[in-house]
Design a protein that fits this description.
This protein is mainly α. It contains 3 helices and 2 strands.
Length: 115
């Protein structure tokens, strides 16, 4: 049998999830956010801590950019097919299709304001 409580904030009747529950899920979340905001207001980060966080973020971005450039150098290949080696055929047909964002699946299925 589930225990039913009455929320002390809004008065709604809900099934209890634990022995110390006093609020419904919505009110509990609202009160939790209020508690966190009050704590953050009374305990602002120090100037040194804020500067350290900014410098740390800049350094992480710089390291990621360097790693990406290094990987790009290793993996760099041409998308053109300049293969002169191959079987001795009488003729070959090569088709080149220029890239267009209009034909991209990401462009086709992108969500817009209108849906």
């Amino acid at each position: 049998m589930t225990r039913v409580i009455v929320c002390r904030e809004c008065g709604m009747r809900v099934a209890a999830r634990g022995p110390g529950q006093r609020y419904c899920e919505v009110c509990s979340e609202r009160r939790d956010m209020l508690r966190k905001r009050l704590w953050a207001r009374d305990h602002p980060p120090s100037v040194a801590q804020s500067a350290r966080n900014v410098e740390h973020a800049k350094r992480r971005i710089e390291l990621a950019r360097e790693a990406g450039a290094l990987i790009n150098q290793k993996e760099k290949q041409s998308i053109a097919w300049y293969d002169s080696e191959g079987p001795d055929l009488l003729w070959q047909i090569r088709v080149a299709i220029p890239f267009s964002y209009a034909a991209s699946k990401n462009h086709i299925y992108a969500l817009r304001k209108a849906g």
